[in-house]
Amino acid sequence: MVDFSSNVYNFANQEQLRVHLMREMFCIHHYPPKEPVELEEILAKKLEIPVDCVLVTNGCTEAIFLLAQLFQGHASVIPQPTFSAYVNACRIHHHTISFEKTDELTHLSDDRLYWICNPNSPSGNVLMKGFLDYVVRRSKNHHFIVDQSYEHFTRAGLFVPKEVTDLPNLILLHSLSKQYSIPGLRLGYVTACPAIIQQLRAIRQPWSVNALAIEAGKWLLENVEASIPDLDAYLREAGRLRSELRKIKGVRVFETKSCYMLCQLDKVTAVELKEYLLNEHGMLIKDCSDFSGLSRYFFRVTAQTPEADDKLIAAIRNYMENQNKSIQI
To answer: What are the residues whose beta carbons fall under 8 Å from the beta carbon of 42, sequence distance 6 or more?
Structure first.
């Protein structure tokens, strides 16, 4: 199987990491530290920020739910379509949720959170850093949670962790899982002003990050820059995939600033295409019908190797051509 559904590069060479984790396997016989302090210290040094501005979490999802809990009962503005965990976390913690409609915004309290996925999922769009910086600075009564989980899959300008020391209402989310293509280990982190980080520490569960994940994070930060050795070449391949898919009749592909892209089918549903690709070719795509604002005709794919992408292009072309013939008959 080739997984095009996850926004992670599937062909990263992690052999050295696996060897290292085998050597450190004894750590599973002991509790991890209640808080991954050593990993946070390594991160802070690498990011050149104070350690009290960093909180390592069990993936970005833990960070999202912690922030929703911290600001329980606030008003949250969540532009759609985007990652569904923001809405789920806010509903659990009794937020007033707005999907950024004008009539809703006029009735919201000034204690607002803005949840921004940048680059966004599932679209790959990126909001200009200059625009976001302007909005954050002029809206000091609001908090802005900017999820930059996919920051290592774009060349677009984004916030850097150092900027949270100057912007107390800015909270950044980051993903080591995606940076290093290790989603199974669940590693994320928050960068924010010390007051926010301190409050998050007070409500988080102990031992939320397991021992193997901590060991992997420490080793990767000290030995590997990123799982994608040549990002420019990878983005060019994503551009080629986008161009080839656009040549297929009945497939619309939206613009993206990242390695993944949102697509829309003309007459067949994403589920039908997904089942065909999985059953006939062992390929998995992301059905996006569960994203708010998207219909059952939307799907997402992430570029992989040129060889894998060519097989995906050929399979989708074959399916769509057969569907078009059936419709004509």
So the answer is: 217, 218, 221, 222
